[in-house]
Amino acid sequence: SVTSAVTIAGTLGYRFRSRSGQYLNLYVGDEWHAGLAGSLALPGSQSLKHALYLELLTSTSARAPFTMKSSDSLKTPLEALLGWRGWFNEKLGFLVGIGRGLTDDGGYGREDFRVFASVMLRGTLKREKVHDRDGDGVPDSEDQCPDVPGEARLDGCPDRDHDDIPDISDKCPDEPGPATNDGCPVKKLVIYENGKLVLFGGVNFDTGKDTIKSESYPVLDEAARVLNGHPELKKVRIDGHTDSVGADEANLGLSKRRAAAVLRYLVEHKVKGDRLESTGFGETEPISDNKTALGRAKNRRVEFTVLEGGTAEARPEK
Q1: What are the backbone dihedrals phi and psi of residue 253, each rounded to the nearest 5 degrees, phi first?
Q2: What burial letters (b/e) apply to 277-299, b meaning 16+ CB within 10 Å?
Q3: Which positions ≥6 away from 231 have C-beta within 8 Å?
Q4: Whole-angstrom distance, CA of residue 265 vs CA of residue 278
Q5: How far apart are CA 54 and CA 34, in angstroms?
Q6: From the CB of residue 100, how many other CB atoms can be counted at a distance below 10 Å?
């Protein structure tokens, strides 16, 4: 695939015949065959449901490749097909088109002109039965809590304290806490120690967005207080990270927008903008296993990196 609208594909193969055939001056034996095709999504077509396509097809005798006019029995036909492919829904589609040979003379495999149409059906003929004991919409094969209803994004497990950490992995399932502390509350939300600015409280956003949840305001308020209390920190970078759910490019953009949202919040709370910068790393720097809900929660994070002014002798927060 070249872009989301243009697709290019090619094929090359060898057609073996156990017995060669001949009728009058027509000889048919082993052949090399090749094809090149491209499609273009029609304007306004979503998810490539409708597209124009062009296909070039050729085949040549393996005994005498690329014979053109020297023999009536060993032609090398070349044909172009132009068509329109569309889908009525996820399963039912159609294909219509025309074809024409491009060589000057006729021969086996070379049509002067043809019209074709077909109906396409995709999907399984029989739906496999999905087992879901707790009825939460997550199949038992993927459900980490198959006997208790939960959420798909939490691998089918419940979350009593609503801290985005499933109870099965939450060390404090009845008290909300950040993923960095395995779901338990922390006494210090932000500290500056040994030249590092560390967030122990989590910064959470609406799913797939850069909107900061109100539950994260105390963490960022404390971060602003610490930054304003340490003017020697001349430049601090806000780093955004995501889990691996979704496309790489989309996650990278989301992480950058989230880091920028944190920067704006800090500026609105009296931190000078020239002391801050932001960037995003998407899913490229995980600190935990993306295969578990707790691991994904740990990977969705905001970090502060001191670029200028931090020292190893920095005094700890009191």
Answers
A1: -65, -40
A2: bbebbbbeebebeeebbbbbbbb
A3: none
A4: 12
A5: 14
A6: 13
Three-class DSSP labels, 215-270: HHHHHHHHHHHHHHHCCCCCEEEEEEECCCCCCHHHHHHHHHHHHHHHHHHHHHCC
Residue whose token pair is 């002014």: 309
| Partners of residue 107 on adjacent β-strands | 110
Alpha-carbon distance of 56 to 35, in angstroms, equals 6
Is residue 56 within 8 A of residue 79, CB to CB? The reply is yes
How confident is the model over 27-62, as pLDDT tens digits?
Answer: 677 888 898 998 888 776 544 578 888 998 888 877
Q: What is the pLDDT of residue 3?
A: 46
pLDDT digits (tens, 9 = 90+) for 189-206: 999 988 889 998 889 999
CA atoms of 23 and 30, how far apart (whole Å): 16
Stretch 279-301: mean pLDDT, rounded?
Answer: 94
The phi and psi torsions of 161 (rounded to 5 degrees) equal -95, 5
Instruction: Note if the pTM is more than 0.90.
Output: no
Return the structure tokens found at 158: 């419940």
Q: In angstroms, what CA-CA distances link 174 with 157, 159, 161?
A: 14, 9, 5
- CA 8 → CA 2, 38, 55, distances in Å? 7, 4, 10
Of residues 125 and 257, the one with the higher pLDDT is: 257
Structure tokens at 111: 């049509």
Q: Where are the beta strands (DSSP E) in the chain?
A: 6-15, 21-23, 26-28, 31-41, 50-61, 78-87, 92-101, 114-121, 190-193, 196-199, 235-241, 276-280, 301-308
Listed residue (278, 309, 283, 307) closest to 296, CA to CA: 283
Cβ 30 vs Cβ 61: under 8 Å: yes
